[in-house]
């Protein structure tokens, strides 16, 4: 499905504006990297820094100016409700704040455009490596201008699995049980600290499969477009096509996804009891 997205006030394409916004946010984060002053705790491991709010405000300022008729939703200011109709920009100013605040250079900026509840465009930018992952429905997925595809591997024992622990104890423990159950039937596993980059790496075939027990719309808005445009499949834990409010997430190619579903059948991770992040 190809969408014809509106152009911005200054005549730019939506994907160009999203990239400009992400690049500017990336500059802000690079400048302040290693110098985080204020950290507040939302929960164990779940923190917010002064840069999360500053960067989100900077992103909203440009998106609001360029697309005054579109709604804006961000992790830090909107309470998480994505309107079900019309165009909505969904942003995460820092995905991987725990990494960022600890000086671990693995975090990213997410900007995605949603139309009537369906993500139609996604940008995920890693400022430390200057890597820009972009995708628009029907137009392919790209990393720094080069088309990307999900992994071509066909067996989990040849694969790298990516995951994250997030903030829900049950979800994390169940996710680790997925690894210990399949282990040693994989090459290795990676806990990333940025789910947005985790999904982008699956879109680029760097990680063969990525799974997570519960993500928010801003974590996965870009990844949902990236993985499908990279020829992959991205589903919830029941195997249904994933969306902004998916219960769990599995991103890979069709063959590895099938094997993952077979190997995790009956595990606690597959039972949707942990419904918060
Ligand atoms: C978090 C990261 C992490 C994932 C969490 C997210 P944040 O986002 O993506 O990898 O496990 O569920 O909330 O808090 O760094 O923006
Ligand atoms: Ca996030
Ligand atoms: Ca965030």
CATH architecture of the largest domain: 2-Layer Sandwich
CATH superfamily of the largest domain: Fructose-1,6-Bisphosphatase, subunit A, domain 1
The percent range for strand residues is: 15-25%
Ligands: D-MYO-inositol-1-phosphate, calcium ion
Major sheet attributes: 7 strands, mixed
Please give the number of β-strands: 14
Number of domains: 2
The CATH class of the largest domain, by name, is Alpha Beta
Alpha plus pi helix count = 7
* H and E order: HEEHEEHEEEEEEHEHEHEEH
- The level of helicity is 25-40%
Task: Describe the fold and architecture.
There is one protein chain. The protein has helices at residues 14-32, 50-66, 97-101, 169-182, 195-203, 217-229, 254-264, and strands spanning 39-43, 46-49, 71-74, 87-95, 108-115, 118-126, 131-136, 141-143, 146-147, 160-163, 188-191, 209-212, 233-235, 249-252. The protein is an alpha+beta fold and 277 residues long. The protein folds into 2 domains: 14-147, Fructose-1,6-Bisphosphatase, Chain A, domain 1; 156-270, D-Maltodextrin-Binding Protein, domain 2 (3-Layer(aba) Sandwich), CATH 3.40.190.80. The strands form 3 sheets. It has a 7-stranded mixed β-sheet with strand order 3-4-5-6-7-8-9, with helices on both faces. Strands 11-10-12-14-13 form a 5-stranded mixed β-sheet, with helices on both faces. A two-stranded antiparallel ribbon has the order 1-2. α1 (14-32) runs antiparallel to α2 and α5 packs parallel to α6. The longest helix has 19 residues, at 14-32. It is globular and about 50 Å long. The protein starts with 13 loop residues before the first helix and ends in a 13-residue tail after the last helix.
């Amino acid at each position: 499905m190809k969408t014809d997205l509106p152009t911005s006030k200054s005549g730019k394409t939506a994907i160009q504006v999203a990239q400009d916004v992400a690049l500017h946010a990336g500059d802000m984060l690079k400048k302040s990297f290693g110098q985080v002053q204020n950290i507040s705790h939302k929960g164990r491991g779940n923190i917010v820094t002064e840069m999360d709010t500053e960067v989100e405000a900077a992103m909203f300022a440009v998106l609001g100016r360029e697309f005054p008729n579109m709604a804006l939703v961000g992790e830090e200011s909107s309470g998480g409700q994505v309107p079900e109709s019309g165009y909505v920009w969904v942003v995460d100013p820092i995905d991987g704040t725990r990494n960022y605040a600890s000086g671990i250079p693995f975090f990213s900026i997410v900007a995605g455009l949603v139309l009537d509840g369906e993500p139609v465009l996604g940008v995920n930018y890693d400022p430390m490596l200057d890597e820009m992952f972009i995708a628009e429905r029907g137009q392919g997925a790209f990393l720094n201008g080069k088309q990307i595809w999900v992994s071509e591997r066909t067996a989990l024992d040849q694969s790298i699995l990516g995951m994250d622990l997030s903030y829900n104890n049950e979800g994390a423990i169940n996710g680790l049980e997925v690894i210990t159950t399949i282990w040693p039937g994989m090459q290795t596993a990676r806990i990333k600290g940025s789910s947005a980059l985790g999904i982008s790496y699956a879109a680029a075939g760097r990680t063969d499969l990525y799974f997570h027990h519960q993500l928010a719309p801003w974590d996965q808005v870009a990844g949902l477009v990236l993985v499908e445009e990279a020829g992959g499949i991205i589903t919830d834990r029941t195997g249904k096509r994933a969306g902004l409010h998916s219960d769990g997430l599995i991103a890979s190619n069709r063959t590895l996804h099938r094997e993952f579903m077979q190997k995790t059948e009956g595990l606690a991770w597959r039972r949707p009891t942990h419904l918060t992040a």
